[in-house]
Amino acid sequence: MAFAAGVIALFAAQPAQAVYAIAQYGEPKYPADFKHFDYVNPSAPRGGTLVLANPDRLTSFDKFNPFTLRGNAAPGLGVMFESLMTGSSDEVASAYGLLADDVNIAPDGLSTTFHINPRAHFSNGDPVTADDVKYSFDTLKSPKAAPQFAAYFAEITRAVVVDPKTIRFEFHQRNRELPLIAGGVPVFSRKWGAKPDGSHVAFDQIAFEEPIGSGPYVIERYDNGRNITYRRDPNYWGAALPVRVGTFNFERITYKLYSDEIARREAFKAGEYDAFVEYVARSWVRRDVGKKFDSGELIKREFVQHNGTGMQGFILNQRRPLFQDVRVRKALDLALDFQWLNRQLFYSQYKRIDSFFANTDLQASGLPSAGELALLNPWRAKLDPAIFGPPPKQPDTDPPGSLRANLLQARALLTEAGWTYRDGALRNAKGEPFEFEILDDSGSAAAMEPITATFVRNLGKLGIVARFRVVDFALYQKRLDAFDFDATTIRFPDVQVPGSEEIDRFGSKAAGETGSGNYIGLKSPVVDSILSSLIQAQTREQLVDATHALDRILMHGYYVVPHWYSATHRVAYRRGMAWPKTLPLYYSANDWITSTWWFEPKP
């Protein structure tokens, strides 16, 4: 690769120069001549077929296109697509050349130019060109792709083909994150969806037309929307790149999709697949056991991780009039008894989530700093005065606290909001009962049912009727995309450096876009202003101030009844699997297994 000699700060006041890597703040960890990431084994043996189960709630698939809204994409498709640059898992915001062999950031920060590695080619043998990159970007930003892409790439004005191997992305404004966002655009061939007669399937209609990407794997076979196998591309172009050495060691990766959690767990015990990540504490202790675990044929291990927690909880849809009063939302939060759940169901393995950025320095604490106040003060007249104090603490039922005390406080809040108990139910001034539905899918219902049942029972003590509704995953996803739910369990994935994804989650425009990540339905000019400051932050300090301010507003808004988190990844695996001695810092356990583990050679 044409690596440059050194690293520049992202928007340094000096002539632009091509470099091998960029960092949002400071400099990348790895030097220009690095051979591989520290958390891989460059000598890992290759071969074998890794068999996995559903990595999420998906129980079937009906397309190979992960970029469109309609339908359910097959698991694992990410191994087929690459981007111009890729991050490392032991830094928070750096990117290294992948399809691109160098990157040039303009001195004014308003554009970034990438040169494409001449060796990069797609699975059909065609070279990756700037036209393909532009086609990918334009398609993803168009109405034919899922709307979150347009939101995520909104600050990129356009992609310009400079020459066949050079592409320039131009930005609306100076934003330190935008070069990394541009470098992360998934790239696919313009020929994807092309027919023998020269016609082309519309991008939003692509279903089982196999993707033409540049990644290390291609689809070998699939069966009835329930199983899919990827085979390592023997002509994969990037195996010797420093960012790829020691990765993707399995010859094949197969996913088997099971109908529910019980079937999936029993299949693992029967030896039908090789590894899985356990997200349910009770199952880890009580159900992930048996003769094969006792004999050592199956192994359980917890791996430390340093990810932020993200936010997981019961999302209260603000599009429903029932949840538009903050006093009502706070009352619902008071009805969740985490301490009881942790003792009785979780074996004391969890901590309560008390921030949208918990387990990081991005979590708000104490009183607002001067930087936070500079963002909040212009909106003081529109904000709850409590936002200018400490962040709210989650309800506690350990002595001297109690569920009874919390429910009494909740009842007082509901009374203030106009809800009183009469005629056998909690009713508003119109006499309408307080009733709502908690939606979930069949894949996670077994794990969530006892938790939700406890929450529903506590709500019942307030006169609130909550019903747990379970539907299959396809219908669940369809209802989520259309925001057709009262409440549901959602996890906003963790990010180490918040950026444009927060606009999709909390921005006013996204609230009205079908399929966006703004499940809450939040429309707030104050939040929009904070989000604008967040994505325009030029220093780490400015980013932290904006994130703290956002966290304060969201937590004081009680838009979510927060759940809990674990500081470890719980992984069960078959004997004979191995991983590098050095663990990454920030990672998804499922992706870590597929990208860096291997099978030990049999004696």
TrEMBL record:
Pfam families linked: SBP_bac_5 (PF00496)
SUPFAM superfamilies for this protein: Periplasmic binding protein-like II (SSF53850)
Top-rank taxon: Bacteria
Domain Solute-binding protein family: 97-492
GO BP: microcin transport; peptide transport
InterPro entries: Peptide/Ni-bd, SBP_5, SBP_5_dom
MF term (GO), any: peptide transmembrane transporter activity
GO cellular component terms attached to this protein's record: ATP-binding cassette (ABC) transporter complex; outer membrane-bounded periplasmic space
First and last residue of the signal peptide: 1-18
CDD domains: MbnE-like
Keywords: Signal
Protein name: Solute-binding protein family 5 domain-containing protein
Biological classification of the source: Bacteria, Pseudomonadati, Pseudomonadota, Betaproteobacteria, Burkholderiales
